[in-house]
Amino acid sequence: MTMSGTKEYESADREFLAGYDISRYDRPSIAADIAVFSVGRKLSEDADYRRLPEKTLRLLMVRRAKQPFCGEWALPGGFMQKNETIQQTARRELKEETGTDKAYLSLCDVFSDSGRDPRGWIVSQSFIAVLNEDDLADGRLEAGGDAGEAGWFDITVQKQAEHRREQGNEITCDNDYELTLVRSVCGEESEERITLFAVVREHIEYRDHHEIITYEIVRSQGIAFDHARIVTGAFNRLQRMLDSDIRIAFDFMPEQFTLTDLQEAVELISGQELIKPNFRRKVNEYVRETDTQVLNGGHRPAKAYVRNLERFYR
Amino acid sequence: MTMSGTKEYESADREFLAGYDISRYDRPSIAADIAVFSVGRKLSEDADYRRLPEKTLRLLMVRRAKQPFCGEWALPGGFMQKNETIQQTARRELKEETGTDKAYLSLCDVFSDSGRDPRGWIVSQSFIAVLNEDDLADGRLEAGGDAGEAGWFDITVQKQAEHRREQGNEITCDNDYELTLVRSVCGEESEERITLFAVVREHIEYRDHHEIITYEIVRSQGIAFDHARIVTGAFNRLQRMLDSDIRIAFDFMPEQFTLTDLQEAVELISGQELIKPNFRRKVNEYVRETDTQVLNGGHRPAKAYVRNLERFYR
DNA sequence: TTAATAGTGTCTCTTAGACAGTATTGC
DNA sequence: GCAATACTGTCTAAGAGACACTATTAA
What's the confidence (pLDDT) of residue B161? Predict the structure, then answer.
């Protein structure tokens, strides 16, 4: 890790620091909680030999093997340790849980309400991670450490009600999101279908031309801590990120991919259907055609594409 | 503040929590550091009665009255206290320093390298705040608490060198930014011209199609802690925010403003000149004309505009 | 009148959206 | 041939960029 680069301290500073005891102050713990997204195929039984398997947006969750919320599902994550940055914490936990660190990872939000964690004063730095099926496949989900069982859930976030109140100069807007997580049964015969559910309220307050946004849990079933709101916030942010730069979609793709794969990933995140020729025109600058063909069923094979690095690294 | 909404704990949880002592673990302190931006007029002496005063982008800094870095300039900020969120910390400190809380405020980044603060393990949550001249004017800069003197600095961030190395699958890119802060002499006769200066290196690493960005201080003159890199990161982010949504520019404006004012704010942040008719077309949906006229000198008076709230609150 | 800013009209070029049409595969 | 996906061409509408032009003010 790079040094922060603060310069050497002057003698007055040194003197002061000798008498400075940071442990006098009350301090929180910091945890990194990671919303790991990926795109997976749905194993549908109605096998039309022609039709491509349906895709789903998936989120990685970990079953808690410890108190509190023992048995419920939580985001992968853990506490920041001394001598690491919170980004390193997130990467470490991500690798422990997924077996790979080939993932997009970026800061998302901070949750620091007192009372959000029954164990005490714990601040959660949330991250968004995106990884592709291939890197996951060889890493496999190794239930490392105290993590217990880990598994992918099909995630849907639906905006329900929107309540808006205007009071003179102040506008308040409550958006309710229904978060549903359904366990993706990954080829295992255990036919148990785990469903987690939550309602999260996004509270937007406009005052003096400025907005304050908070997330509040209305209902949460089977999801540990306040992770339902962290997930909802992460999903909303992922949508906005995709909106402002389509390149995040490529992080869901392995080295080689078809343009249909890429388009489906975008559609899953944005929740909107796109018109193929327009989509292809849009991503054209970011991809390079290969000679490889991908045969997928009783229809014309697709060309495999790779990233056009020139356009990514700029 | 809204509750985090975690549900009531089961009995197993209660039992566990009774024996749980969070103080066993080593914990950091968390501070909120706020990059407060605004747009101000430059008091130029060459008084052409016609010409509008030049505008500058300004950043609020606080002279440290305490060790460490006593006498140097730092971002306004302070430690998170129990029973407040980090966002509340930021708002509290902002109000202490500027006298107003009518400001845009949003999370920017986290800096958590061990060694970034000589006092010990201190994590900095950085925020971006934007406020307008009018709210500042009546709030005035009240040097509250342990803050010492506070003042506005004209800020310029210039990208210098860009060093790029490709090594097989890995691409490394170092961007050097020159940060210059010049004290805006706010009508006072004290003609001392304080100049702070730093070089911050943005280190971008592309590996496995994913990027890791870190900021490192190469040189820092008169700026406390690692705040030079926090400022550089905040400025870069402000630019990107403006790029993806022009509405952030309105936070620099008071209730009423002219379109030229707004355009100048955008130009200052983006560093690019814009063509007037195109700019007006772009912001047209966000503004409403008023009857008020603004007389500014020996030229045609400008119409005052207000925000078209319909387009902001959506 | 002059030199400054305020504001409008319009031409062009680029981009986004929609749709029609062709190509290729396994059965 | 059929039904699925893969891929291309083109028309149209909307938006971005550039520039020329008019309007209004204080000295």
Answer: 82
The whole model's pTM is what?
A: 0.92
What average pLDDT does this structure show over B253-279?
A: 97
Place B136 in a pLDDT band, splitting at 50, 70 and 90. Answer: confident
* pLDDT on residue B296: 81
For CATH 1.10.10.10, list the domain ranges present in chain A: 245-314
CB contact under 8 A, A28 and B27: yes
Selecting among A142, A149, A170, A289, the annotated active-site residue is: A149
Q: What is the pLDDT of residue A1?
A: 35
A278 CA to D12 C1' distance (Å): 14
How confident is the model at residue B6, as a pLDDT? Answer: 43
Q: Among this protein's residues, is A267 annotated catalytic?
A: no
Cβ <8 Å between A25 and B86: no
What does the pLDDT read at residue A42?
82
A29-244 fold: Nucleoside Triphosphate Pyrophosphohydrolase (3.90.79)
Smallest Cβ–Cβ distance between B68 and the set A13, A214, A244 belongs to A13
Residue A3 confidence (pLDDT): 40
Q: Out of 3.40.30.10, 1.10.10.10, 3.30.420.10, 3.40.50.150, which CATH number does the structure's domain A245-314 have?
A: 1.10.10.10
Q: Separation of CA A255 and C1' D7 in angstroms? A: 21
The answer to whether B4 faces chain A, any CB pair under 8 Å, is yes
pLDDT at site A143: 47
A141 token code pair: 């989900």
Calculate how close chain B gets to A199, using CA atoms only, in Å.
11
- Whether B118 sits inside 8 A of A6 (CB atoms) is yes
- Residue A40 pLDDT level (bands cut at 50, 70, 90): very high
Q: Which nucleotides in chain C lie less than 7 Å from some protein C-beta?
A: 2-10, 16-20, 23-27
**A68-79 per-position pLDDT tens digit:** 999 999 999 999
Helices (H), A67-162: 86-98, 133-139
CA(A80)–C1'(C4) in Å? Answer: 59
Domain with CATH 3.90.79.10 in chain A: 29-244
